[in-house]
Specification:
By secondary structure, this protein is mainly α. Helix content is about 35%, strand content about 5%. It contains three helices and two strands, in the order H-H-E-E-H.
Length: about 80
C-alpha cells in the first residue's frame, strides 16, 4: 500500500531547509514557493519526490526545475519575481 504524503508539510520542510542553507532569501520567492503545489506538475509516480531538491520530468515532456535554483533564476535569469 502506498503511503500518504502530506505535501503541505513536505513543501514547508523544503522551504525551511532552503532558507537555512541560504538558498532562499527573497520574501517574494519564498511566498511563491510556499503557494505553488509542485506535486501537481509531476506524474503520480513521482509525486512522492516533488519536494526533493532535484529537477523532475513533467507529464508534458519537460522538466520542473530544482527548487534551490529558483532564486538564482528569478534574480539573474531575466525573470521578474
Amino acid at each position: 500500500m502506498a503511503r500518504s504524503v502530506d505535501f503541505t508539510s513536505e513543501r514547508e520542510r523544503m522551504v525551511q531547509r532552503l532558507i537555512s542553507e541560504g538558498l532562499l532569501r527573497s520574501p517574494e520567492v519564498i511566498a511563491a514557493i510556499r503557494k505553488v503545489p509542485r506535486e501537481l506538475f509531476v506524474s503520480n509516480e513521482l509525486r512522492a519526490y516533488a519536494y526533493s531538491d532535484t529537477p523532475l520530468p513533467t507529464d508534458r515532456g519537460q522538466t520542473i526545475s530544482a527548487p534551490h535554483g529558483t532564486q538564482s533564476r528569478a534574480l539573474h535569469g531575466g525573470h521578474n519575481e
